[in-house]
Structure formats: structure tokens, C-alpha cells
């Protein structure tokens, strides 16, 4: 059970909630803050004070005063009118993350909602009721209005949810779990949708998967090093210490450990003096991606515990301020940055694939074919990798550099952070497939070299991989192999093989 406090949620805990289906509750201290904040809202309504979103309309309608008898209609109308999302739904894990993150933000006690609203969010998480939320339609300010409106609809007994592997009407799932719809009152609709939880949820899932493939990319690159008789000297610790980047040093260290005991790697001058950059510069390139992932992790963990709605209530209602914490710029930039960094893992991986299959660049059978000429071997696998890398280059164009004014120019600068998060996730998915192709080619190469000469760690990965993708002794429909290998990397890769030092913080991550 993960206890939400509004202030301490971590990516490690989110990994347990999303991938381990761990349940959640709230701390007693957070409930006390929620109650104090709610009392402040009720006083504002009773005294008919002019406060944005409580006794006024929204956006350009902020100057329109609302009668206190109409506050419930105001909140319901807000959800209905803002539920304008289109396109395919977010992955179910993202919907689950959105529920958790929205509850955690409200538990900070600056939003003025009733306890029952947050309880419903937590009940949905614990019952595995995940709203169907369309991916498209958010500008990333004022928060993720459209996606979060679709998240809220099932709380009201409307909309659809994913429940026990099916897509059903929300009332059907709620009825089976004994959960009743709620009616929103003053401030609650606005508090639920005015935030960055869609982009952050998408970002959390993207980061967790990106972190995993970043580790996996190093082990796969190690297999390639053996398949190409790569020069181990380039990973010598002294080389990387004098550069000074801790992440680069850590990648080189892991590569040395993965390849320790290998009789397939070489020393400089033994076969060649230098390797190509895609081999020699693995620590420098992969290390730079790790620098980016560390930056993204920091920003996500701040945003996961942030109050992002508007207005915010301070000092028991004595101070109610309309600000801009819903603006997604910090996450927008982080998502764009992560997309670029992960795309580079695919970029350099594809170059290693080319070196594995191109007979002009190695002494292996052309395209790793069993019968070169009669059979094409891995020739078109490299094409597929190149296509995915090229697609990543278009997806990596920063979403955050664009802004289109909305709400009659009241909201005249927006982040497009949700687009950036969606693109980052697609880049992660594409990169995993490129790495799957490299793994297939590298396994073929090391077996042709002699698997008995492999390092113990890489040999273990080869044996696990061969249960997924068999040796290529003749041409077959390789699409199936690529998909199986990608699924292996996503769900079943032997992550224990990536750990060589439990005290090394760079290894712990989300694994």
C-alpha cells in the first residue's frame, strides 16, 4: 500500500502502482489539510465573495459572476463542455497514473475540494477502474483541461472506463464495486481538471520505460561489442574520469562489468587500432542520455507533488490567489528533452546494426545470412531500424516551441506539453524495437563467433534471448521476431543481469 501525502510521491512508488498494481491510501495529515481548505471554499460561497472559478465563470468568462445557487451547475457544465478530447485513448496505465497524481495534488490541501472527491479517485485506483481518456485535445495550459474532464466524467457516473480487461460504461463498473457517483459542488470541477496530470502521467510511464531501455541498451551494445570483436580499451575508467561526467563514467563501468571475462572483445592494435564511434563512444552517447533522464526524473518528481490548479487557497481562505501553476512548461521541456535523448539511443543502435550486417564493415557472413544471396538474412531488419530512427527524428521536433492562443486570447501562451509527452512515449516504443533488432543481430553474430567465448553476463542474456528468438538458420518472417524481442525487452528482459553493484545508485532506478 502506497500512502499519498501530497508531498512525497516518487517514481519508484509510481512504478509499483502502475506495474505492480499496488493500492493507495491517504495520510491523516493530508485529510486534515483537505478539510481546512474545503471550509474556506464554503465560506467564500456563503459570503458571495468574488473568487475566480468559485463564484465566477472560467477563462474569458472570469468576469461573469455566478449566483451561489448555481455553483453546482457551474461545475457540471465545466466538465461537460471541456470534455472535448479526441483520438485513441491513453494507455490504461496512464489513466491509472492520472487518478493517482490528481488525488496526490488535491491532498496538498490548496484546492478546496471535499474529502469524498479524493476518496472516489482512490477508490477507482484500488478497484482498477480506469477512465477512458482520449489522447488528443490538450494545449498543456490551463493544464490538461480536455483529458482531465474525461477523467472526471466516470466519477459522475458518466463516460467509459477500462475495467477487468474490458471497455465498459462507468456505471457498470462502479455498480460491481459498490461505488456511487458524486455530484460536484463549488470549486471541485475546476480543481479536478485545472492541472498537468495528463502530461505528467504520460511522462511518468514514458520515463519508467525509457529508464529500463537505457539499461538494456548497454547490455545489447555489449553483445554487439562481442559480435564485432570490439576494443575494450575504450571503456577504461581513466578515459572517462578525465572527461568528468558521472553518467559517462557509470556507463563505461557497466560495460566493463558486462564484458568481464569475454574472449570475443579485443585490445587496441590486436585486430584494429580504433573502433567506429558507434562502439567506441557508447559511454559518451549513452551517458548523455542518462544525464537527460536524470533531469527528467527530477522534474517529474517535483510535478508529481505539485499543486497545479487555480485558484489556490492559502491561510485558511484568507488568501486566495489566481496564478499559473497549471502551465505545463516545465514538463513540456522535459518531455521534449527526453524524446531527443531516447531517440539518440535508437540512432546509435541503428549504426551498430549496420556494422553487424554490412559485409564491408565486418568479417561476418553478409547480412548474417545462412546462405548469402539465396537468403537475405538481416538485410531488411536494418531497413526497419532505419525507418524507426527516421520516424523518431520527426517525433523529436520539440512540441514546446509551439503555442496557439486560446480562450479569446486570455490564455495566450500554452505549453503543448501533452503532445510532447505523447511523442516521447512513441519514441520510447520505437527505440525499443530498434534495440530489439540490434539484439537479434548481435545474438546471431556472437553465436557465429562462438558463444563459449562470451562473457558470463552476456552469455546469460543470450541464453534468455534464445528462448524468445531462435538462431537464424534460414529466412523467415522476421517481423514476428522483432515484435517478440521488443515484448521481451518491455516485460521479460533479465534485469538482474544489469545489476553488478547494489550500492551503485545509478543501477537502482526503476528496475
Describe this structure in words.
This protein is mainly alpha-helical and 511 residues long. The chain folds into two domains: 2-195, Fumarase/aspartase (N-terminal domain) (Fumarase C, Chain B, domain 1, Orthogonal Bundle), CATH 1.10.275.10; 204-311 and 323-403 and 415-503, Up-down Bundle (Fumarase C, Chain A, domain 2), CATH 1.20.200.10. The protein has helices at 11-19, 28-46, 71-82, 92-106, 115-127, 145-152, 170-177, 188-193, 197-227, 237-241, 246-258, 277-280, 282-303, 329-357, 379-395, 417-449, 456-465, 478-492, 505-508, and strands spanning 2-4, 24-26, 86-89, 129-131, 134-136, 160-163, 166-169, 312-314, 319-321. The strands form four sheets. The protein has a three-stranded antiparallel β-sheet with strand order 4-6-7. Strands 1-2 form a two-stranded parallel ribbon. Strands 3-5 form a two-stranded antiparallel sheet. Strand 8 and strand 9 form a beta hairpin. Helix 3 packs across helix 6 and helix 9 packs parallel to helix 14 (329-357). It is elongated, with a radius of gyration of 26 Å. The two termini are 19 Å apart.
Defining traits:
three-stranded antiparallel beta sheet; two-stranded parallel ribbon; 19 helices; mainly alpha; elongated; Fumarase C, Chain B, domain 1; 53% helix; 2 domains; Fumarase C, Chain A, domain 2; 511 residues
